[in-house]
Amino acid sequence: MRHRVVATVSAVALGAAVLTACGSSGGGGEQGSSGPVSLTYWAWAPNMDKVAAIWNKKNPDIKVTVQKQASGDDLVTKIITASKAHQAPDLVQAEFQALPTLVSNDALADISKEVGGAKDAFAPGLWQQTTLGSDAVYAVPQDSGPLMFFYRTDLFQQYGLEVPTTWDEFAATAKALKAKAPDKALTTFSSNDSGLFAGLAQQAGAQWWTAQDQKWKVGIDDSATRKVADFWGGLVQEGAIDNQPMYTPAWNKALNTGQQLAWVSAVWAPGVLTTAAPDTKGKWAMARLPQWDPAKPATGSWGGSTTAVTTDSKHKAAAAEFATWLNTDPEALAALVKEAGVYPAATAAQTGGALAASPDFFAGQADFYAKAAEIAKTTAPAAWGPNVNVAYTFFKDEFGKAAKARSGFGAALTAMQGATVADLKKQGFEVAR
C-alpha cells in the first residue's frame, strides 16, 4: 500500500488530497537573497511570456522564463516525470483537478507561508481547491470557469420561453420547446467533456474524492451526482433534449442555425460561440445557472488553473512571489486577460479594466462581466483526487454509451465509481468503503 501518501492529512472537509509523508522541497534551500535568480515556468496559456516580461522589467533580480507546454494529462505526466528526476521547473501552470495528483507524487511545494496573504483575493471555493482541505497551500488560483446558462434571446422570444431559474423550470422549458418546435432542442447532453458533468455535480454538492481516516473515499456515485445524472438522463430518455456530443461539426451547425437554443457552459463560452456559431453574433445572453435550491445559489466550475511552485525549485520564496504577483497584481491581471484570454480567478479583476466591456459576441448584454462576477462568487467547493484522469475517461466511455442508447445513466455512474475505486486500489492507495 502507498502509506507514504497519507502521512500529512488528517480529517479534511474538502476533497482533500492524501499527501506525501516527506513534504520535501527537493531543490534545497532558498537562494533568492544571495543574488539574481532565474526561474523557469511551464505554462500552456498563450502569450504568458508577454505577461512575464512585465515582471522581468520590474524585477531584474528575479527573471522568469516561460516555456510553452501542452495542457491536460500530458503536462501532468511530464511534471511528474521531471520531478522524479529532480529536473522539474520552478513553476507550473496546473489545473485545479490536477493538484491532488501532483501533490501525491511530491511534485508541488507547500507555499502557505509565502502566499497566505493572497487568500482574500479569491472566492473561498477556489482557494479551498489549492489547499486540498489542509493547512497547506499548493498553488495560487489563476483563472476560473464558473458555469452559466447561455441562450438565444431571439428564439426564446419567438417561442415564448422564459429563462429557467431552477432545474425543474429548465426541464419544463425543454419540453415546452419540443411541443412547439419538435425539430429543435433546448440543448444537448454531451458525453465528450467530463468537466461539464463534474461542474454540474459540484453545483449540486457532490464531493467526488475525500480523505477519511488516512484513506481515500470515492463519492462519485453519491446522491448529489446521481440526482444530476438522473435529471439529464431523464431528459435524454424522454427526447426533451438532444443526445449528441459537443464540439463536432453537427453541434456547431445546431448552434449556428438555431436548432439548439441554449448551452450550459462556462464564462469562456463567448470565445467558443464566435467560431462555432458565427452567424448568431449579438443574439445571445447569459444568465445564472438554473438552481437546485434558489435560496442557496451556487454554481460549479468547468476549467480553471493555478500557478504552483515545485518541490524541485531552489528559489521557493521568489517563485511564490511571482505566482502571487501574476494572479493578484492589477497590471498582471490585466495582461492575463488581454494576452492570455483568461477569466481571472481574482475577484477584483473580474469587472472593470480589461473586462469593462462585454464580449463582442454578447454586445447586447452590457452587464455581462458584472453578472459573471456575482455568479463566480457562488462557486461551490470541488473535491478532486489523484486519479481524475481515470474517472474522466470512464465517464466518456460509460456515459457515451448511455447517451447513445438514451438509457442507463444510473448504471453508467455506478460503473464510473467502480472503475475509479479499482484504479486507486491498483495504484496502491488505501480506499475507505
Structure description:
The model is unreliable at 1-29 (pLDDT under 50). Helix 1 (48-58) runs antiparallel to helix 13 (330-340) and helix 15 (388-405) runs antiparallel to helix 16 (409-427). The strands form two sheets. Strands 1, 2, 3, 4, 7, 8 and 9 form a seven-stranded mixed beta sheet that branches. The protein has a two-stranded antiparallel ribbon with strand order 5-6. It is of the alpha+beta class. It is globular, with a radius of gyration of 22 Å. It has 16 helices and nine strands.
Q: Any key phrases for this structure?
A:
433 residues, disordered N terminus, single chain, 16 helices, two-stranded antiparallel ribbon, alpha+beta, 7-stranded mixed beta sheet, globular
Could you write a compact summary of the structure shown?
With 433 residues, this protein is of the alpha+beta class. It contains 16 helices and nine strands. The protein has helices spanning 48-58, 73-84, 99-104, 112-115, 124-131, 153-158, 167-180, 194-203, 223-238, 249-257, 269-276, 316-328, 330-340, 368-376, 388-405, 409-427, and strands at 37-43, 62-68, 91-95, 140-152, 209-212, 215-218, 262-266, 284-288, 301-309.
